[in-house]
Amino acid sequence: MIAVQQTIHVGGEWRAALSGATREIIDPADATAFAVVAEGGVQDADDAVAAARAAFDDGAWPRTPVAERAALLRRVSALLERDRERIAALESRDAGKTMEEGRVDVDCVRDAFLYFADLVANEDGGRVVDAGSDEIRSVVVYEPVGVCGLITPWNYPLLQASWKIAPALAAGNTFVIKPSEITPLTTVVLIELLLEAGLPLGAANIVTGPGGTVGARLAEHPDVDLVSFTGGTTSGTKVARAAADSVKKVALELGGKNPNVVFADACATPEGFDTAVDQALNAAFIHSGQVCSAGSRLIVEESLSERFVAELARRAALIRLGRGTDEGVECGPLVSAAQLARTEEYVASALGEGAVLRAGGEKPAAPGYFYRPTVLDRCHRRMRVVREEIFGPVLTVETFRTEREAVTLANDTEYGLAGAVWSSDEDRARRVAARLRHGTVWINDFHPYLPQAEWGGFGKSGIGRELGPSGLAEYREAKHIYQNLAPRPVRWFAGETQKEQA
């Protein structure tokens, strides 16, 4: 029997759900339960918000000097480095990703904490505004928003938590986080590390539980000043509607359907061809395609298409599937039975609409939620598989003849998170990148990001930005302080006689 973990942390206390409800956490590699966590509800969320509210209104953290806040974030980064292997293994088992992917995630989380520590530590006392008079001192200062409700997805539970927690704490906020009910375990560990680093009790609170109850309550709660959500568009719009009644700040990162545009000139040499194919594999199949920025739409120049797709399919068929912690595994399982069924349905739909299967398209004969990396050729924009986000290892192939057609195809989506262009012609690459309506555009690369550069999308990919200076600004309010150094009567309402005297 698996012991129940106390995964709800409220005001400095680890506890079970008030209802006593629990949830099994499933290992997607073999479809068996390996942990049991608390299944919180509305009252647990209310208690957590009350603790965060008290910690913000009366506690130490919002009034902690910036240098001390930065020092704490650096201590957290050191603890992440210390526990790298343990956390990577837990992330691998919980989310199904490979150990190498888990290690990269921990390193990126460490870097995020270091970046926001440095960002706030190097700031000055505000932005001085020239009022046009030596008698006026005017400055804009940036203060914490208050209590933050943070809702994170199942695909990158630790990474997405850090993108919200690090800037929220750097700015001086308190928070309640609700990780995905499917993959909550590394977020629980991160809260433990925050406490070990010395974060005052009540500043960090976590409630594990469903989005429909705990997440919905955080979005609508009148004592939550900001809600930051990463996940699907349907859930994100519900969050925005719930938040509207209390007119709180909202930040949404809602995924994408991301184009990877390959011009023939990028593959004019054997090295260029090999690199573009290799990167197309990485773009589509990292973490079994369960990435909001996955390059799931290959848009390749028609003259190159047959040779490119043949090699892509050949290599996709060689990708080694297995448990993420096993040696030599290159791709893990999908996160759940539901996600596997969703992927199978999309592939069946595409084949029914005329797509040509070039690789994959099946579940291997093994336990767990595995699905072979799949390449679907001869796709077009009317297909569901091309228009809708799948979150599975499925790559669609479209072709173009002209640069203008390539841009039109790449932008023909209601999303706008990320995209890439491959070309040996620098002018063409920059020209196409400038015309792509996506929040991140890579030229001759795919997937890297920098904590100092903003991340977010156009259109239905969301509202606001994470990372970079804008990622910190999401968790702040701007306040203008105007000081008159030589106050005197205005006489605006002094009466006619006094105005004449004045």
From TrEMBL:
Alphabetic keyword roster: NAD, Oxidoreductase
Record domain Aldehyde dehydrogenase: where: 16-481
Catalytic residues (positions): 253
PROSITE patterns (UniProt xref): ALDEHYDE_DEHYDR_CYS, ALDEHYDE_DEHYDR_GLU
Annotated metabolic or biological route of this protein: Amine and polyamine biosynthesis; betaine biosynthesis via choline pathway; betaine from betaine aldehyde: step 1/1
Pfam families per record: Aldedh
Xref: InterPro entries: Ald_DH/histidinol_DH, Ald_DH_C, Ald_DH_CS_CYS, Ald_DH_CS_GLU, Ald_DH_N, Aldehyde_DH_dom
Similarity comment: Belongs to the aldehyde dehydrogenase family.
Protein name: Aldehyde dehydrogenase family protein
